[in-house]
Amino acid sequence: MTPGADGVRIDCAGPVATVTLCRPDVLNAQTPAMWHALRDFSRDLPGDVRVVVVRGEGRAFSAGLDLAVAGATGPGSFAELATLSEAACADRIAEFQDAFTWLHRPDVISVAAVQGHAIGAGFQLALACDLRILADDARLSMAEVTLGLVPDLAGTKRLVELVGYARALELCVTGRRMDAVEADRIGLATLVVPRAELDDAVRDLTAGLLAHPRDAVVEIKALLAGAAGRSPAEQLRAERQAQTRRLRDLAGLGE
Predict the structure, then answer these.
(1) With a threshold of 0.85, does the pTM exceed it?
(2) Which burial class, exposed, middle or buried, applies to 121 when counting CB atoms under 10 A from its CB (0-12, 13-18, 19+)?
(3) Rounded Cα distance, 89 and 198, in Å
């Protein structure tokens, strides 16, 4: 367990790792230090972890970028980023993106437990996860446009994959907020539950994700994650190859 000095606390219990944003006094607003902590944790993730749960402490999942940090003049601020060369600025943003993209790595399943606000970077953090359980008080928004910015934390492709181009465009360009009912209706939520039942729902889903052999789960995730980029024939071939590996492994003939 890490103590959360950078605003992120990590707890590992066997096959489950829980990532908690722990700045409840500012609704878990995010900073570059938090993103670096998330990236560093991903590199040291214990090999037996199968499920990563991402949650926010207190009333909100995350209210987005900490504007106090963004508006300052130090490292990670908008002012500092703007002075960099285009290549250096892009490299810095790539480091920030690493804090999000690891959550859909092939060997784990990630679950966002969302209550209250999930705004901007908070929404993108929820999108980075494979599955999202929303409390009925959840409010989501891709609010970067209200600051004259674009979503740049790996959220745009994930959003299009989940809700389609037209809906994603409308959400990103208006920056409007949606409630849990709408998020469920358009395909963003895996499950919506009363706020008081969020923790129980996360435990139940986690138990289901751990109930079956890891190697089979990893193969299934890879099949589904790559399906959109394959032709029907390519997907059929991928299924055959995956099943062949599973049969050989179950027979004790795997590599």
Answers:
(1) yes
(2) buried
(3) 38
